């Protein structure tokens, strides 16, 4: 990478994580690890760490608008990643931002429930998030999130995943990466779908308890590779490969007493070579 070439600029719109493994902090780390200059707009202050969520303080929508306007009036944005939205009002406010067309490429991780089981989306906000899903370029739901979006039970097989991915396209979503990490098996299978069809992405499942922030990190990685010029299917494949390596290196971090974070900088820190 040439120091003479300005990097693409990524914006994450999401909630915080004081432990640094998920949310805004994970997005900033992912962007930075993958050569994207990182900016952020915060939707909520979340008191969480590796053992779970203790509280959420949402940002007033007017202050959310002030963050957005202050940033985009000054800084070029090449790609946007959206994470935790918390309430219908915040989701609708972010939808207003997307309508401005500041960036052509927008990735939405429809965060509803943390890996710890803590709910991160007001139940009344589901309809607003469904509407937003139709506005963005790509969504990255896991199986329980796709089930909420479709109002049906979660898929239990790869064939079921393929069906749900197709249903999301029929719902008006332009592109989807349906994540199959909740299913058991030796391989982790995701389904990419768009108007042209379905692609199955598979990688060996990594045996680790460090899954905190995987969804945030994957969606930010997709946005990063897209910002560097990859097609959407390529960006999803490259991001999955990157996350697999980040999971493999995660045990070297030893962060927290619960489900620890992935190693966002596994390609850059020297000791990551020992855990590859």
Summarize the model shown.
This protein is 36% helix and 21% strand. By secondary structure, the chain is an alpha/beta fold. The chain starts with 8 loop residues before the first strand and ends with a helix.
What's the level 1 CATH class? Alpha Beta
Q: Tell me the CATH superfamily.
A: Ribokinase
* Beta-strand share of residues: 15-25%
Tell me the domain tally.
1
Separation, N- and C-terminal Cα atoms: 23 Å
CATH architecture classification name: 3-Layer(aba) Sandwich
Q: Show unreliable segments.
A: 272-276
Tell me the total number of β-strands.
9
CATH topology: UDP-N-acetylmuramoyl-L-alanine:D-glutamate ligase
Q: Strand pairing plus helix content: what structural class? A: alpha/beta
Please tell me the overall pLDDT: 92
Strand order of the largest sheet: 3-2-1-4-5-6
Shape: globular
Q: What's the gyration radius in Å?
A: 17 Å
Sum up the structure in keywords.
globular; 9 strands; alpha/beta; three-stranded antiparallel β-sheet; 276 residues; single chain; UDP-N-acetylmuramoyl-L-alanine:D-glutamate ligase
Describe the structure.
The chain is α/β, with parallel strands linked by helices and 276 residues long. The protein has one domain (9-150, 208-275): UDP-N-acetylmuramoyl-L-alanine:D-glutamate ligase. It has nine helices and nine strands. The chain has helices spanning 23-33, 61-72, 88-99, 126-133, 143-150, 158-170, 214-227, 232-248, 272-275; strands spanning 9-15, 37-49, 52-58, 79-82, 105-108, 138-139, 176-179, 187-194, 197-204. A six-stranded mixed beta sheet has the order 3-2-1-4-5-6, with helices on both faces. α4 links the parallel β5 (105-108) and β6. α2 (61-72) packs parallel to α3 (88-99), α3 (88-99) packs parallel to α4 and α7 crosses α8. The longest helix is centred in the C-terminal third of the chain and has 17 residues, at 232-248.
């Amino acid at each position: 990478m040439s120091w003479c070439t300005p990097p693409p600029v990524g914006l994450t719109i999401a909630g915080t994580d004081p432990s640094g493994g998920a949310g805004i902090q994970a997005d900033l780390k992912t962007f930075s690890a993958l050569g994207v200059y990182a900016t952020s707009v915060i939707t909520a202050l979340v008191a969480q760490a590796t053992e779970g969520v203790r509280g959420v303080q949402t940002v007033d929508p007017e202050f959310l608008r002030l963050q957005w306007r202050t940033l985009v009036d000054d800084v070029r944005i090449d790609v946007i990643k959206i994470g935790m939205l918390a309430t219908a009002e915040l989701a609708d406010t972010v939808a207003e931002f997307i309508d401005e067309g500041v960036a052509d490429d927008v990735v939405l991780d429809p965060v509803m429930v943390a890996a710890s089981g803590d709910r991160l989306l007001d139940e009344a906000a589901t309809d607003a998030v469904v509407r937003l899903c139709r506005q963005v370029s790509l969504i990255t739901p896991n199986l329980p999130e796709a089930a909420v979006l479709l109002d049906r039970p979660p898929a239990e097989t790869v064939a079921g995943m393929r069906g749900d991915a197709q249903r999301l396209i029929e719902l008006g979503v332009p592109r989807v990466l349906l994540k199959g990490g909740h299913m058991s098996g030796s391989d982790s299978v995701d389904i990419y779908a768009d108007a042209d069809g379905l692609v199955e992405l598979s990688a060996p499942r990594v045996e680790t308890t460090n899954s905190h922030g995987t969804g945030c990190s994957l969606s930010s990685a997709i946005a990063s590779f897209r910002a560097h010029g990859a097609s959407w299917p390529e960006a999803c494949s490259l991001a999955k490969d990157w996350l697999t390596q980040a999971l493999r290196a995660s045990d070297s971090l030893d962060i927290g007493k619960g489900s620890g974070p992935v190693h966002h900088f596994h390609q850059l820190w020297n000791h990551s070579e020992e855990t590859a």
